[in-house]
Amino acid sequence: MTKKCSSILLAMLIVSLFTRPVIHAADDFGPEEWHQYRMNSDKNAVFDNGRPPLENQTYQTADQIRATPVIAGNKLFVGNHNTGDLFAFNVLTGEKLWQNQAPNWIHSEMIYNDGQVYVGFGNRFFQGNGIRGTGENGVIALDAETGEKLWTFTTEGEVMPTPAYYEDALYIATGDKHLYKLDPETGELLHKAEIGSTVSMSSPNITDETLYMGGSGPLPYTFYAYDVKKDVFKWQMEFPDVFAGLDDVPPAVANNTVVTTAVTGDIDSPEHWLYALNAETGEILWEESLGTGAFVRNNKSGAPIIYDDKVLVGSPITQTFYAYDLESGEKLWEFENEVIKAPPAAQDGIVYFSNKEGMVYALDTETGEVIGKKELNGILAPSGPVIINDTLFIGSQDSNVYAVPLTDFTKDESAQKTNIASENDEQANTMLYIAGGIAIILLVVFIIYLRKRVS
């Protein structure tokens, strides 16, 4: 090979290295962990790592979905209400990865930690001894890759609330009036505390080493704070006027404030209330009536989230969606609609809430103005939507999980985010092309110099 050819080949190799476009490492679509109901203590289940949103997609299961879909890494996990079927999907493609089955209803989220999934099972029916949950009850651990059952821990009462994972321990609240602490690797019982109340679907919220949950009978309805380090109750607050709802609502916690809801009065004249409690003492900071209306079956008290120092909550009793100031309890706005049971999700000044009629609305969090809406199929799950990378995920009682890009509501804002990312990549590529051009010029000069020396 001549020196001239060698020089040209070297030049081509270097130029190709410098002019190659930018290729980003493929990050997982979802978070690395999902440790409790709706992931975050404020219950605003939102995550963004810069990945572009998905297109509209459907994940088909076997039966009704009433739990929140959990997205961890590139997998979506969800269970079925009546049949107890458990599913994992590739969240990017919609491909079903595996399917297994629990022995009873699934209302619990399939929370995720370090390659394992944990899910509670049980139903709402009462045994003759007053324990809630007939048939088999408990929690299952599964391998997230294969769906293989790793262990099962059985309880006397239902585990409809989502378990909570915290510092190498798994906590489950039950229909047998107990709080269980388990070893997440083996399912071994580490501690058992008597609550004194039945817990329906008030999934434990663990924040700053404290677990918060609401309970029902025996009367009075009571709200609890439990120290997970000392395994003792820190405080409990009784609600003597409440007859429903407190045990159904997973509380939201932020800024040292716990927010929950409950129903007072009676079946003929129910009144829906919103409560804010001091997270350290249980003192009621403020309470506001959302109003009266018709009593509803199941999920009688809407679940709140906290976003941007606001409480955002829907009421199935008044069929209205509300925004309240977290600190003062002042009502900021309201939006009349249909029966609303699910907690919403909020991002970029927009709150997305679903109603019983299969609609998802996008409202301005400052004004309550409608920005967009979309109709989906079936009665949407009472656990509400989550937002991962500008994609809204929600389950339905038609057996499907729906993925909807937020561009369906706010095309300009989502497109702007995608365009900014694209522009950044183009700028990086342009800089590399410029550098490559300079490299070519220098190589040509060097080759000319070598040829002159040879000649």
Automatic annotation (TrEMBL):
According to the UniProt entry, where is the signal peptide? 1-25
Q: Which UniProt keywords apply?
A: Membrane, Signal, Transmembrane, Transmembrane helix
Domain Pyrrolo-quinoline quinone repeat: start-end pairs:
61-119, 133-217, 225-406
Source organism superkingdom: Bacteria
Per the UniProt record, which residue ranges are transmembrane?
431-450
Q: Which SMART domains match?
A: PQQ
The identity of this protein, by name, is: Outer membrane protein assembly factor BamB, contains PQQ-like beta-propeller repeat
Natural source organism: Lentibacillus persicus
The major lineage groups are:
Bacteria, Bacillati, Bacillota, Bacilli, Bacillales
